[in-house]
Specification:
heterotrimer; A: about 325 residues; 11 helices; about 0% strand; B: about 475 residues; mainly alpha; two-stranded antiparallel ribbon
């Protein structure tokens, strides 16, 4: 573990914490533009966070300590996930602690706690949201694992940093299996981040909402943490996707200059990714809840297909 | 060479002419005349092949040997007799309002094109062209089956198209695999798919690819042969199409498909040297015979019943060719011939009977002997012949197949005997009241064409009693070529 | 560069496979036709790459024929048919997509297993593609079985032809030209016949639902 590594790690986490709301704002802005609406300011998520942190946090009488702890756990999980994902550099001290599988575990942990907290309060919406969230999670996680497995089959490692290193080092080659896995990953990310074909982050319609129903009872700094964690999750997923499918420009060990160079590259990649996400959300309609399992099964089977294609073609 | 050109060109030209005049009053005669010319050309071709041996012409694209020349003659012959039968039959259909002039034109034209495609499939040396011709023959018969445009005939034609389309696609995949193997062994190019080239190099073909290729080809062409479990289209297509078409489907198209399987089997045998292709054919054939026999007893429609009988007999032939060896192959070829003759004769008789009754349901056909003894006797004798009664030829071939099976595969013999017994009971129980008993049938405006029925039955009888030496020579030669 | 091109054949193969999969999971007839057209485009692209790599000129012709047939002519015909039959917005509701897709995955595994040993023997540049082509054929086969409407069945039939054609070009770098022309001709005639049939079925049954075509059964 080098000093450079620790610095890179700290920089990565700090950057994630700082940039995550910006990414959300960017996506929201593009979404508004693409839908012919007047866009909110790019900095709107920061203002919301600021406002919420300054507000009083109201907690229901029936809430147990679990309800208060959950936002912190969720925020912690997401921050750690951003630390593990190779955003700027592959020389990360935290990376050996957790590979791709543990990363999926981190997301699952956050999901379990936020769902428990939603049930804990005992409202109808909370239970409903928790149930839907678990349904989505239970279908999305295997698909995500399969995607990560296809990538690790190519590189013979489950460590994300190692995967990125191998992919950048080998001569440019077309991996058909990665192309299929990329499609599957996009579908899973949409579901996991409560995006349009699966959930609409801007709606509070009880018939359809999943994520919003979960956090309905939170207020003040708790809500701020949850919202921030959601931004971080989107950021983490984007970074994983970029690292797996467009790995170029991520710095490696012992090159401090490259890290500085990696920042604008990352921002550019995220900007393009954000526009694409907004585009997907605009041209798709939200699916009925009953069709969500179908959507996620498709993602899962595509990921399995990617694995099979890898086995057949060896690429 | 000229004879071959005539054999292929006459039906196609005939199809063109009939596309122009097929709706006229003389179209049926023209149809028969074209078929007769084809038959004459086929006989000429046969004479040449008998005199000079195998014929390999036109840059090796066409190949006629003992195996296919007798099928060419058989096809041309049954094509001709069926055109004689179809003349009065289709006139009655027209009087009943089931056929309109445009439909008559389509029917006559497609009939000739269908014959032409079968002859092309039989004589081509290129396995790719064989596939194309088989598919084209399928397409023409799809149009022929649906010619009445009734709900049932449309359903039958749709099923036929979809199922055979799927089946024939498997055959194409098998052909592609064959090409893949051949490309490795003898290099790619236009001549790679020529059967004679492949047969010469068959021991060089990769066994792994060939076994897979044969499996696909057997399944694919087997769909057209009517092997269980891909036989579902066959009873529908036979029952709902015009009866002349049922006769040529059963008598000819199934044979041509089986011929394609045989050609490929020779290649697979040469490459594998394990007898696996034969075992696969034995398995499919046995299952087909047994399943078809048990389905026979459940039929109410007379044409459906005889369609199942065709499935049963095709299974028997597949079984015989699967056993291999000179005797079983001989028996298989003989069975191919007599089945084609007897089954088409049966369909002729059944067609007239069903027209008299105005229904294909067997319960509605009663006492044929009272109204028209000749049709009644034709049906009765045909049924006896197809059930393997001596002295008809079917008996001879079935006897040979059974005795060979007893020697090679003793456990299969009881199964075959049971299946044949069940089939006997099922058909005889149904045919007997149709021929004898009281009647409610009415005479028809156009006298039935019974000559084809009795010519076919007469030939089948002759083949049961005495096989002419040159025919015997053919069969032996062809049986050796199939090997196994 | 030629290595990348060879790899791109694999990519097009996978695109074909994914599109075949998407067809299985697609309920809307209009989208099915779009997917079929895309499959044709991928097929043409793959054929062109193979033609370029192997230097076989007749593959350029067959690519041109495929383009004319599968990307232009047949999609236009299908569009006209669904407009004339007024089934443009038809949606098929009565089949379970996840189960069908699961079956599809099983078929893919089966196909890959079957073609695996052969893929290693092939000398062609894209040896792994045979398994994918077989998988496409079997998936289209599955689609024809589970669909109850005429147009999707026909599209399944055509997409099966795509898989076969891909097997012929990619695994063996092209069958003899005359055979390919014959196949193309058969497909064209077949699709015309099916098109006519659809109108007749509609006339007879007032619907394109193949479930009406179940009268002919064993008693």
């Amino acid at each position: 573990m080098s000093i450079g590594g620790i610095l890179a790690q700290l920089l990565a986490i700090a950057l994630a914490l700082a940039l995550a709301p910006l990414l959300t704002g960017w996506v929201n802005q593009w979404r508004a533009w693409l839908q012919n609406r007047r866009a909110p300011s790019l900095l709107q998520p920061y203002r919301v966070l600021h406002k919420l942190f300054n507000k009083e946090s109201v907690v229901a009488d029936t809430a147990s300590p679990l309800f208060r702890i959950a936002p912190y756990i969720m925020f912690g999980c997401m921050a750690l996930a951003c630390g593990i994902a190779p955003t700027l550099s592959t020389d990360l001290p935290l990376a050996p602690a957790a590979d791709a599988i543990a990363l999926v575990g981190l997301f699952a942990l956050a999901r379990v706690f936020i769902s428990l907290a939603a049930i804990d309060i005992g409202t109808a919406f909370g239970t409903l949201g928790a149930r839907r969230e678990m349904l989505v999670g239970f279908l999305a996680e295997p698909a995500l694992l399969m995607v990560l497995f296809s990538a690790s089959l190519i590189t013979q490692s489950t460590s994300l940093a190692k995967i990125v290193e191998t992919l950048t080092h080998q001569p440019f080659a077309i991996h058909p299996s990665l192309a299929v896995a990329g499609v599957a990953f996009t579908m899973v990310s949409l579901a996991e981040n409560a995006r349009v074909p699966v959930d609409n982050p801007t709606t509070h319609l009880e018939l359809t909402m999943i994520h919003e129903a979960l956090i309905l009872e939170y207020s003040g700094r708790h809500l701020a943490l949850v919202e921030w964690a959601a931004s971080l999750k989107l950021f983490a997923y984007s970074c994983i996707g970029l690292a797996l499918f467009v790995p170029w420009g991520i710095a490696e060990a012992g090159t401090p200059f490259a890290i500085v160079l990696a920042i604008p590259v990352l921002v550019a990649k995220l900007a393009v990714g954000g526009v694409l996400l907004a585009l997907i959300e605009t041209i798709n309609a939200k699916k009925r809840l009953f069709l969500v399992p179908e959507f996620l099964t498709t993602a899962f089977l595509l990921a399995v297909l990617a694995l099979l294609v890898h086995v057949l073609l060896g690429a | 060479m000229d004879a071959l050109l005539l054999v292929l060109a006459i039906p196609l030209l005939g199809g063109l002419l009939l596309a122009l005049w097929g709706h006229r009053e003389f179209a049926a005669e023209l149809n028969a005349a074209v078929s007769l010319l084809t038959l004459i050309a086929a006989c000429w071709l046969t004479a040449i092949v008998v005199r000079d041996g195998p014929l390999l012409v036109w840059a090796e694209w066409f190949f006629v040997d003992a195996l296919n020349v007798f099928l060419v003659t058989l096809t041309a012959f049954v094509g001709f007799t069926t055109s004689l039968f179809s003349r009065p039959y289709m006139r009655v259909e027209r009087d009943h309002g089931k056929m309109t002039p445009p439909r008559m034109r389509l029917y006559h034209s497609m009939y000739q094109v269908f014959n032409g495609m079968m002859l092309l499939a039989l004589t081509t040396n290129n396995l790719g062209i064989l596939w194309v011709a088989m598919e084209a023959a399928t397409l023409t018969t799809v149009l022929l089956v649906s010619v009445y445009r009734s709900a049932a005939s449309l359903e039958a034609a749709w099923k036929y198209f979809i199922l055979c389309g799927v089946g024939i696609a498997q055959a194409l995949f098998g052909t592609i695999l064959l090409y893949l193997a051949a490309e490795r062994a003898i290099g790619g190019g236009d001549t790679t798919l020529l059967w004679t080239h492949l047969a010469r190099a068959s021991h060089q073909l990769d066994p792994a690819i060939l076994s897979l290729a044969f499996a696909f080809l057997l399944l694919g062409y087997g769909t057209k042969v009517g092997l269980v479990p891909v036989h579902n289209w066959l009873p529908d297509a036979h029952a709902e199409g015009p009866t002349p078409i049922s006769a040529v489907l059963s008598g000819l198209l199934l044979n041509v498909a089986l011929y394609a399987v045989l050609r490929v089997k020779v290649l697979a045998d040469g490459s594998l040297g394990t007898g696996l292709p034969g075992q696969m054919m034995v398995g499919f054939g046995l299952v087909t015979v047994v399943v078809a026999a048990f389905f026979l007893s459940r039929q109410r429609d007379v044409k459906r019943m005889f369609a199942y009988s065709s499935i049963e007999h095709m299974g028997l032939m597949t079984f015989a060719f699967g056993l291999g060896g000179p005797v079983a192959n001989f028996a298989g070829l003989l069975h191919m011939t007599v089945h084609a003759l007897v089954k088409s004769a049966l369909f002729f008789a059944v067609g007239h009977a069903a027209q008299k009754a105005g229904s294909q349901a067997m319960d509605d056909i009663r006492g044929l002997l009272k109204v028209s003894p000749t049709v009644g006797w034709g049906l009765m004798l045909g049924a006896l012949a197809i059930l393997g009664m001596p002295p008809f030829g079917v008996f001879a071939s079935e006897f040979l197949i059974l005795t060979t099976a007893m020697r090679e595969l003793p456990w299969a013999t009881p199964l075959l005997l049971i299946a044949l017994g069940v089939a006997f009971a099922a058909i005889f129980r149904r045919v007997q009241p149709m021929v004898f008993g009281e009647t409610s049938l009415r005479p028809l405006a156009h006298p039935p064409a019974l000559l084809p029925v009795f010519i076919h039955l007469g030939l089948a009888l002759m083949l049961g009693l005495y096989i002419p030496p040159y025919l015997n020579g053919w069969y032996r030669q062809a049986a050796l070529m199939i090997g196994g | 560069m030629s290595l990348l091109l060879a790899q791109s054949i694999n990519l097009f193969a996978v695109v074909l496979l994914v599109l075949a999969f998407a067809m299985i999971a697609q309920r809307r007839i209009l989208t099915l036709i779009h997917l079929f057209t895309l499959q044709g485009v991928a097929l043409v692209a793959a054929t062109l790459v193979v033609a370029h790599l192997t230097g076989q000129h007749h593959l350029y012709y067959s690519a041109a024929v495929t383009f004319a047939l599968k990307v232009v002519l047949i999609p236009i015909l299908l569009h006209r048919v669904i407009i004339r039959l007024n089934v443009r917005w038809d949606v098929e509701t009565l089949f379970n997509i996840p189960t069908t897709m699961l079956l599809g995955i099983v078929l893919v595994i089966f196909a890959f297993n079957l073609a695996g040993p052969i893929a290693r023997l092939s000398t062609s540049i894209a040896h792994g593609t045979l398994g994918i082509a077989l998988a496409c054929v079997l998936l289209s086969f599955l689609m024809m079985i589970v669909r109850a409407k005429a147009v999707p069945q026909v599209i399944g039939f055509l997409s099966m032809e795509n898989g076969l054609f891909f097997a012929a070009t990619a695994a063996t770098s092209g069958m003899p030209m005359i055979v390919e022309l014959g196949i193309a001709f058969d497909v064209l005639v077949g699709i015309l016949i099916l098109g006519v049939f659809m109108f007749q079925i509609r006339e007879q049954f007032d619907s394109l639902d193949i479930r009406h075509l179940e009268k002919l059964k064993e008693d």
